[in-house]
Amino acid sequence: MTRPEDDGKGTPGNAPSWVDEVLGRAGTAGPDDGPPQDLRIPQATPAAPPSLTKPAAPQPGLESRPVTPPASNLDRFGEPARPQVPQLPGGADVAQKKLIAGLLGIFLGSLGVHKFYLGNTTPGAIMLGVNVGVWIVAFLLGLLTLGFGLVITLPLAALVSSAVGLLGLVEGIIYLTKSDADFGREYILGQKPWL
Fold it and tell me: How far out from the chain centre does Cα 86 lie?
């Protein structure tokens, strides 16, 4: 970009020729190049304040109604509002409650322990009562029939107990697969009793 004949003396201001090339001037400055370019950033002109503008005159015959902006789902910064994560009483963590309830449902679901942990005492008592009660009834009927009824009542008790255990297993898996926000909304705040 530099020419060997550039010794700093040929251009005004002692600038080498590559400066002229960068600035878009071909050759050296002469009388026909015109005025030099102003490379400064222009200053912004201030706009007239809105208080100095005249409001539009109301037209006769038209009622003036206050204009209300449409209701929007924006937060205070103008961003779309995000759903709030439910706050638990006592400050417990939703993810921790979800994990514990899910594991209790998988391993002790037939006794309804996961329901008691979440505060649903009625569904928990129903699951515990059905599971324990069916075995008590099966053994009582077996004793009344002198042991002959055990052939029928024990498999039935096992079937009912397995069904309640399967319900607990499915509920435990559902608890673990829900998102924290859904779990907190449905099972902690909403106290959803079943599935």
Answer: 12
How far apart are the C-alpha atoms of 137 and 146, rounded to whole Å?
14
- 3-state secondary structure string across 107-171: HHHHHCHHHHHCCCHHHHHHHHHHHHHHHHHHHHHHHHCCCCCHHHHHHHHHHHHHHHHHHHHHH
State pTM to two decimals: 0.53
Pairwise CA distance, residues 172 & 113, whole Å = 11
Sorted by sequence, the CB contacts under 8 Å of residue 28 that are 6+ apart come out as 10, 11, 12, 17, 20
Radius of gyration of the chain (CA): 41
**Structure confidence at residue 51 (pLDDT):** 58
Burial class (CB in 10 A: 0-12, 13-18, 19+), 172: buried
Query: Which tens digit of pLDDT belongs to each residue from 100-125?
Result: 999 999 999 999 999 999 999 999 99
The contacts of residue 60 (CB under 8 Å, 6+ apart) are: none
pLDDT digits (tens, 9 = 90+) for 68-97: 555 567 777 777 777 665 555 545 689 999
